[in-house]
Structure formats: structure tokens, C-alpha cells
UniProtKB/TrEMBL annotation:
Name listed for the protein in its UniProt record: Cyclic GMP-AMP synthase
Basic and acidic residues bias spans: 107-117
UniProt cross-references to InterPro entries, sorted A to Z: Mab-21-like_nuc_Trfase, Mab-21_HhH/H2TH-like, MAB21L/cGLR
Gene3D superfamilies: 1.10.1410.40, 3.30.460.90
Length: 513
């Protein structure tokens, strides 16, 4: 009888004891979750996640059955506080003050009244955990937008730089035409990130292709070229032909000789004019020749900045179908449409004088396929609905994600220099990954600007997958692996660095400040 009375008294006391007050889990934050008293303060006042019960009236504490888990004990939420069998009257804030820390994993069954112990070390939350699923007020998304603002080009600087480059090229091209009959029909074509409107930080790099119509040529694949490198042999050989002086015995166009002849003319031009044609307050110089590079690099020095201009000779091949190695490439039917693909396939091919690698040896007189003109058009007209990012259309974040990846690679190179092979990775790798990602997610709705954070995470996930496999296929030539000459150690190091940046919310971006 006494036992029964004692049990009744305990039950009555339990009913009269106030329940544990629930607190909503901390919302998205620009920093990793706080601990102790700071965590308790951070959790106050935030809205409940979808699926939880309505908030209790102000001042009221809804009772919680003894031994029940609080709403913050759901699996998969790193910022949740686990409260299994908490003692009556102890709130989430009290538990935090005692040192309870989020674990992100369901704990093993505990005895009644036990409280989770804090981890000795806590991993930073992955970027995906902060995703706001398109909310304009998301702190992380606003932060990424602030980074993008620092990457935008100043209007005054851009106008000045482009003016200097245009003045130089407009003066140089007529000189080249007059000096060498072989180059009498060249025309300039702007390519690269500046003309694609994805240049970041400063307008200090320009790529100019000097295109010249090529005769009917037969493209013979180079064995070490993976479908990207070819020998160009004339189908016909008139006696008085302007390219005769650059033909080998087997009628193959000698890329090395043509590039050297163009370089000689440009150096002579710079020497005679002292660079005055670029502007009254500027000086022009020519960089030393880089082994295997198809570019002749000019540098325009001004009081404010130095501008590099890569001049690339390109043979324009028309009235000829694309090589067999391009079959399966340019997979844009679901992204830009079959009609657009057909239009691109009718555009001319360009061949640039680039040496193919045979182990440690370089093969001279090889030409590499170039699709710079099509790449520029795809980036500028990147939406599958023809109004994407136009005045009457919705803004997407495709180009913004590309800029962020380019900036990430640049900052990592600044931090580590040429250590661990980071110099082997370039902006063209980022651009190719961008095209592949646009094919994987072709719909404009999958790249809404309001979803910038989650889209950038998705894009990085694809790039990390390429690094892990050490395989990034050329967008136009699927048989050509752009990571083919990159060793596994360099790829793993870059992958590790990117993962660290993701898990710590990109501290590398703060270097620019």
C-alpha cells in the first residue's frame, strides 16, 4: 500500500513540473555554428523549420513527455541539439551552457536522464547545410554576391584597357598585311574571357586571334593528339601559291615556320615604333617565346596597370566537315537546341599552331582544333529559353558560378604558388567544366540567380568528381582528356584544397581583402 502511495505522489509531482521549453534550431549563418552561451543566443528568435508544431503562446512552456526527444534531435541536422531523456525543467539553453554540442548523428540508446556529451572536435558545416533554396535573404547567398561584386570590372578601367588594345591591334594588323603576302588576308577576332564577358578582377588580359583563310587541306590526326591535334596537308599545290614557302616536302603546312614569321614581323613593329601606337603614356614589349605555346604575348605598360595581349595565328578552314573525333561532342540538344547545334556545325573550323606532346617530346608542325568562336557564342547566349538574362527574362547564375570557380583557382594559386602542380590547372578547365555542367542541368530553372549558393555547390561537386577521376573531356572532342597530362597527386591536392574551402565557407576568398 505504501509503495502505491509513493508512486502516486511521484506521478503528481511530475505532472506539476513545468516541461522543457523548445527552442528552434539556429538558422543559416555566415559562420559555423557557435557553441556554449553563444549557441544559445544564436538560436533565439529564428523561425521553426517546416514540419514542426506551431509555436506556443509567448510566455508559455508546452509540456514535454518525460523521456521524449526534442524537435532538435532530428537526424541529419548538424546544428540540432540532442536532448534524449532530459531532466525536467532543463531548457535547450541550459543544456548548451552545460556544454552540449551538436553531433549530426543519432546517438546510441542512452539511459534515462542522460545528456549528450560534446564532441572534442567539430567539423565545419558543409556549404549545402546552409542552402536557403532560393531565398533572397539567405546570408550565404548574399555573401557570395558580395564576392562577385569584387570580381566585376570597373567601367572606366575596362574602357581604357580595351581602347589601348584596339588601338594597338588596329595599327598592327595593316603592318602585318603589308610585310608578308602570306598574311595579307588576316583579320582580327576577339576571343577569351574578356570577350565572353566572364573576365574577373581586372581587364588586364586579352586574346586576339589573327585568322587567315586556309586552302583546301586534308587533316591527318596526330597519333598522340587524342583527336585534337592534326597535320594539315594541302589537297592541291599550285606552283605560285602564297603558302609554298611554308610547305614541307610532303606538302604539310609547317606551323612552326608560320608562327616564327609572324612573331618576327610583330617584334620588328614593336622595335620600330617603341610601342607608341598603343597610346601616348604606354609602352609595348614582346614576351620571350614559350616552348609549345601558340601565342605571341605583347605587354602594354601604363601608369595604372599592365595589360597582356595574346596574339594567336589561326587558319580558317571552311567547306569541310568536322573531323571524326568531334562525333559525340557539342552535346547541346537539350540545352541550346538541335537547331543551334546545326548552326554551329556549319561554322568554320580554326587551326592554331600548337605542338602535340609525345611523352616528353614535342611534335612540331602540328595544329590543334580551336572552337573559341563557338565557345564565345555559347557563353553569351547560354539560356535554353532564349530570354535568359535578358531584360524581359529571368537572371540565371551560370556565368556567376564560372566566375567564382575561376576566382577560386586563382586564389589557390596565389596561396600555394606553383607547389603541388597547381600551375597545371587553368581557366580553360573551368570553362570546359562549365559547359559540361550546363549540359547536365540544361533548364534555366536549375540555375536561378536566387539559388546561387546551391548552384555553385552543384557546379563544384561536378568539378570535384572530374578531379577525383582525373578526367575532364573536351567539350567538342570527347576523346581528348584535358586532365590527361595532370598527375594524380596534383589532382588530389587541388581536390583536397577545394573541399577544405567548401567545408570552411571559402576563407580563401578573404585573401583579396
Amino acid at each position: 500500500m505504501g509503495d502505491r502511495c509513493a508512486g502516486a505522489r511521484k506521478a503528481k509531482a511530475s505532472r506539476q513540473t513545468p516541461g522543457t521549453a523548445r527552442e528552434p534550431p539556429p538558422g543559416p549563418s555566415a559562420d559555423p555554428p557557435a557553441r556554449g552561451r553563444q549557441a544559445a543566443k544564436a538560436g533565439r528568435g529564428n523561425a521553426r523549420p517546416p514540419g514542426e508544431h506551431d509555436r506556443a503562446p509567448r510566455g508559455a512552456s508546452p509540456p514535454v513527455a518525460q523521456g521524449a526527444k526534442s524537435a532538435s534531435c532530428r537526424k541529419g541536422k548538424e546544428s540540432d541539439l540532442r536532448e534524449v531523456g532530459s531532466a525536467p525543467g532543463e531548457s535547450d539553453a541550459v543544456l548548451r551552457e552545460k556544454g552540449a554540442a551538436p553531433t549530426g548523428k543519432d546517438p546510441a540508446p542512452r539511459e534515462k536522464g542522460a545528456v549528450c556529451k560534446p564532441k572534442e572536435t567539430a567539423e565545419p558545416l558543409p556549404l549545402a547545410s546552409y542552402s536557403c533554396l532560393g531565398a533572397d535573404s539567405c546570408i550565404g547567398a548574399r555573401w557570395l554576391r558580395d564576392v562577385l561584386k569584387t570580381l566585376s570590372l570597373g567601367r572606366a578601367d575596362t574602357s581604357e584597357a580595351s581602347g589601348l588594345v584596339n588601338q594597338l591591334i588596329n595599327t598592327l594588323v595593316p603592318v602585318i598585311k603589308a610585310q608578308e603576302s602570306t598574311f595579307s588576308s588576316i583579320e582580327s577576332l576577339g576571343t577569351g574571357s574578356y570577350y565572353e564577358h566572364v573576365k574577373i578582377s581586372a581587364p588586364n588580359e586579352f586574346d586576339i586571334m589573327l585568322t587567315m583563310p586556309a586552302p583546301r587541306v586534308k587533316l591527318e590526326p596526330c597519333e598522340q593528339g587524342s583527336g585534337a591535334f592534326f597535320y594539315a596537308r594541302l589537297k592541291r599545290n599550285p606552283k605560285r601559291y602564297y603558302l609554298n614557302k611554308y610547305l614541307s616536302e610532303d606538302k604539310t603546312l609547317e606551323a612552326c615556320k608560320m608562327l616564327s614569321a609572324l612573331r618576327k614581323i610583330i617584334k620588328e613593329f614593336v622595335k620600330n615604333t617603341s610601342g607608341k601606337h598603343a597610346g601616348p603614356d604606354s609602352d609595348v614589349t614582346v614576351d620571350k617565346k614559350k616552348v609549345g605555346s601558340p601565342a605571341i604575348t605583347l605587354r602594354i605598360g601604363t601608369l595604372q596597370q599592365e595589360i597582356s595581349v595574346d596574339i594567336i595565328l589561326a587558319l580558317e578552314v571552311r567547306s569541310q566537315s568536322w573531323p571524326a573525333s568531334t562525333q559525340g561532342g557539342l552535346n547541346i540538344k537539350k540545352w541550346l537546341g538541335a537547331k543551334v547545334k546545326q548552326e554551329y556545325k556549319w561554322k568554320p573550323l580554326y587551326l592554331v599552331p600548337k605542338h602535340a606532346k609525345d611523352g616528353r617530346m614535342l611534335k612540331e608542325d602540328t595544329w590543334r582544333l580551336s572552337f573559341s568562336h563557338i565557345e564565345k557564342d555559347m557563353i553569351k547566349n547560354h539560356g535554353n529559353t532564349k530570354t535568359c538574362c535578358e531584360s524581359e527574362g529571368r537572371k540565371c547564375c551560370r556565368k556567376d558560378c564560372l566566375k567564382l570557380l575561376k576566382h577560386l583557382l586563382d586564389q589557390l594559386k596565389t596561396k600555394h604558388g606553383n607547389k603541388r602542380g597547381l600551375d597545371k590547372f587553368c581557366s580553360y578547365h573551368a570553362k570546359t567544366a562549365f559547359f559540361q555542367a550546363c549540359v547536365l542541368w540544361p533548364d534555366d530553372k536549375e540555375w536561378l540567380f536566387t539559388d546561387l549558393e546551391s548552384c555553385f555547390q552543384k557546379f563544384l561537386d561536378y568539378f570535384l568528381d572530374c578531379l577525383n577521376k582525373v578526367y575532364l573531356p573536351h567539350f567538342f572532342i570527347p576523346t581528348y582528356n584535358l586532365f590527361g597530362l595532370i598527375d594524380k597527386a596534383s589532382s588530389e591536392f587541388l581536390s583536397k584544397e577545394i573541399k577544405y574551402e567548401i567545408n570552411n565557407r571559402f576563407p580563401i576568398f578573404k585573401l583579396q581583402n
